[in-house]
From TrEMBL:
GO cellular component, one term: plasma membrane
Domain of life: Eukaryota
Topology of the protein relative to the lipid bilayer: Multi-pass membrane protein
Protein name: Olfactory receptor family 7
PROSITE patterns xref list: G_PROTEIN_RECEP_F1_1, G_PROTEIN_RECEP_F1_2
Entry function: Possible taste receptor.
InterPro entries assigned: GPCR_Rhodpsn (IPR000276), GPCR_Rhodpsn_7TM (IPR017452), Olfact_rcpt (IPR000725)
GO molecular function, one term: olfactory receptor activity
Organism field: Fukomys mechowii
Subcellular location(s) of the protein: Cell membrane
């Protein structure tokens, strides 16, 4: 998912820098947006699943093998792939509904879904519905699950008497928590911020954070 997520934007950006060409065809733009949304959504859900995995490992260590059995892991993986495909197609179908565009320039280094939706000169209701529905189901709910998991993890760690054991347990969550903060902080801020006043420069910096740095 990470390789696909990065590969959907970075190679095209490098080609653009080396050739000094910022032109992309309509079909290529839709393809890039579709792949970007697919892998971004998959990353999004998998980060939530990883938080749940850490919650089970730290709070219910004796039942870990039973709860996180291979069948459940496969089910969670299939769920993340299915939800990602649905989200990708919803964005594509929404964009294909637009027949009028205010301009043909995207204020980003790739075909960012919020930027593409903002280019339409009609269908603002559909655009807002898609933005908020996707933001709630793939932003609010997963992030709530991560926050709840870490609330339980921190509560469990505070009950551990030895600081060494507490540090060892929490160190397994450090890298995941860092990626969650970068990914969700910049991603949701960019996505929901595009509905209100949006600064192209700040948007590009935020996009660079959640597409490349994480």
């Amino acid at each position: 998912a990470d390789i696909g997520f990065t590969s959907s934007t970075v190679p095209r950006m490098i080609v653009g820098i080396s050739t000094q060409s910022r032109v992309i065809s309509y079909g290529a733009c839709l393809t890039q947006m579709s792949l970007f949304v697919l892998f971004a959504c998959m990353d999004n859900i998998l980060l939530t699943v990883m938080a749940y995995d850490r919650f089970v490992a730290i709070c219910h260590p004796l039942h870990y093998a039973v709860i996180m059995n291979p069948r459940r892991c496969k089910l969670l993986l299939l769920l993340s792939v299915f939800a990602s495909l649905v989200d990708s197609q919803v964005h594509n179908l929404t964009t294909l509904q637009f027949t009028c565009f205010k301009e043909v320039q995207v204020a980003s280094f790739f075909c960012d879904p919020p930027q593409i939706l903002d280019l339409s000169c009609s269908g603002s209701l559909i655009k807002n519905i898609v933005t908020y529905v996707v933001g709630i189901f793939l932003g609010f709910f997963p992030l709530s699950g991560i926050i709840f998991s870490y609330y339980k993890i921190v509560s469990a760690l505070l009950k551990i008497p030895l600081s060494g054991g507490r540090y060892k347990a929490f160190s397994t969550c450090g890298s995941h928590l860092s990626v969650v903060c970068l990914f969700y902080g910049t991603g949701i801020g960019t996505y929901l911020g595009s509905v209100a006043s949006h600064s192209p420069r700040k948007g590009m910096v935020a996009s660079l954070m959640y597409t490349v740095v994480t």
